[in-house]
Structure formats: structure tokens, C-alpha cells
Amino acid sequence: MIRKLREDLKFKKNNPVFRDSVKSQLTELRKTHAIFTLLAQNTNYSWQGVKSAGISLFPDSWIELPQYYSTSLLSEQSQIEIGKHIGELQFDQLIFNGFAPYFYTISVAAKKVNPNLKVKVIYHGFLAELSNNEFQQRALKQMVDGRISGVIDTLGFAKKGLALTMNKLHNLDCKEIIYFNPPCQEQQPYDDTLNIGNLVSDTFRKNFHNMAAAGFMCDNSRLHVSNADDLGYLGDNSRIHAHGFIEHADFIKLLGKMTVNLHATFSEASGGQVCSESISQGVPCISAYTSAFFDYDDELKDRLIVQGVDDSWHIYQKIEEVLEDRDYLSKRCLEYSAYLNTLAADRMNAFLGA
């Protein structure tokens, strides 16, 4: 099966339809925009958060590169041709959303044709995920080397402190990025029960099981997850609703139907899309201090950040505290979401102006 998958990928890489489609989209986009972002296609949840963040930052000026997980479906020659086409179209700025090593090939080809093109990167990763992760290590190093050599003109980082770290390590003028939150949509609660959203993946850093146990301990609660296969130890499975993979627009709607959402993870880039999208819908989201997400509001930082992130009982107690004042916190979340969007605009203006 692995051999067949490799053969399928090799065939797709040699398929000129992908290259021609991207070039056609670039030509059409240039009629209305001088600045745009290239982002990688997601495979289920792989690259989904990065893609969603990029679209939030450039909702009308993005083009998706065909990709399977982190493998480009464009041959190296197709990547070069796309880069040349970007140069020929005389865009002012090419902004890569996230960074895969093959983005570098596109950058070099584009700047060779148009040396005045500003190539910029918004990096959504964080240092904790570099452990035993050769792909991310290589991508980050190539991105920094590209900035030092001049192939890349500006780097932006979503993880608080990472821009300052790179400035110190490499004497660079990196920028801090804050994501835009989506507008609030009017919607009804999922049902009349207490609905706890634990809508994260089951990777270790997401702290899925601690949050699942905490939500399940709430009396008469219904626990909403993506995958419930490993939760048989909790008890009555009829109280667990597994939703599977959900397209992003529907995912935001689902977050908005919850009583409270959970996102107390061990490591995050920017607070996590679940957290930002939850509060944008007026649903309190319990988080952990692994990012700067609530740094701009001391009250919410105190009331929505759980200190015992690796303690299911501690998370359960925080849920109970939030539920006691849920309506007030819902209002404050909406206010904070709007404020974050003003900060996001300021950061983006600084990034684009660099």
C-alpha cells in the first residue's frame, strides 16, 4: 500500500493540471491585488490550522498550493515555473503562509524574474514542536537562511516571543503576528443540555484526555469530541458525541453551539484556533498559559486560564467556575475578540510595511 501511495504521488507530481491551475489563479488574482499569500492545501487536520489562519489574514487574496500532508504535488520544475510566473506578473509582495522547504524554490524563481518583489513569510509554528521533527527543523532553518541571504525579505511569527528570539539569535527585524477572529454568527445552542466542547486532535500536546475527563465529570454534560475511540474508560458513551473531521466553516458553527469549549493544551503557537474562534462566537474557552492569547485582558487571563493543565480535576474545577458566570464571560469574550482584531490589524500593517 505504501508503494502504491508513493506511485500515486509521483504521478500527481508529474500532472501539469496542478501547475496550470495555480498559474491561472495567479493571473486572475493579479487583476485586483498586488499583495497575496500562497498557502498549502490541508489533508484533513494536517495544515488545517495554518491554512485557516492564513485565510483569516488574507481573506480575499490567497491561493492554495496542491499538497498531500507536507509533500508538494508540484514537481520542482512546476514550482520554478510558478515562481517565474509570479515574477512576470509584477506582484508587489508574495507572502508565504507557513513554510515548507519547497516554498524556497518558488521564492528564488520569483525574485530572479522580479528582484523588486518583496517575499515574506508568516510562520505559525513554535520551538516545542521541533523535537524529533526533521521536517520542521529543516523548514525553519531554510526560512531563516533565506532571510539572511535576502531571498526572503521579512519574517513574521505568531508565537509570542519567537520574533524577539529570532531577532536576538540572528540580528533580524522579525515581526509579531496576531490572527484575525471571525465575525460572530447568530446560532442556537446545540441542545438544552450542558455541552462541553473538547474539539482538538488526540496528539499528546493537545492534552485531549485530561480535558475529556474534566468535561465528562460535569453533571449531566454532553462531551463533544472529534474522535471518541479511546474514551471508553470514562463511562456512559451515550454522553460522548464524536463529530469526525468537519470543514472549517461548520467547525466554527459547532464551537458556537457549545456551552463552554476547552483548549488547555501543552504547547501552542498563538493560543490555538479553537480558542480564538470560540470566543469570537461568544463561547468561553478554557485555555492554558502556553501562549499569549489572553495577555491583553487581565480579567479573562485570570478567569479562563487553568493553572493545573496536566490535572483533569483542576480543569474540571475551572469549568465549574466558568459555568457559574457563563453569561458575563460570554459578553467579555465578544469584547475581547473585537479588541484582538484591532491589535491584529496593527501587527499586519507593520508586517506589510516592513
General description of the model:
There is one protein chain. This protein has 354 residues and is an alpha/beta fold. The protein folds into 2 domains: 2-177, Rossmann fold (3-Layer(aba) Sandwich); 194-341, 3-Layer(aba) Sandwich (Rossmann fold). Helix content is 46%, strand content 15%. It has 13 helices and 14 strands. The strands form 3 sheets. The chain has a 6-stranded parallel beta sheet with strand order 2-1-5-6-7-8, sandwiched between helices. β6 (118-123), α6 and β7 form a beta-alpha-beta unit. α4 (76-88) runs parallel beside α5.
Question: Keyphrases for this structure?
Answer:
single chain; 354 residues; alpha/beta; Rossmann fold; 2 domains; 6-stranded parallel beta sheet; 13 helices; 46% helix; disordered N terminus
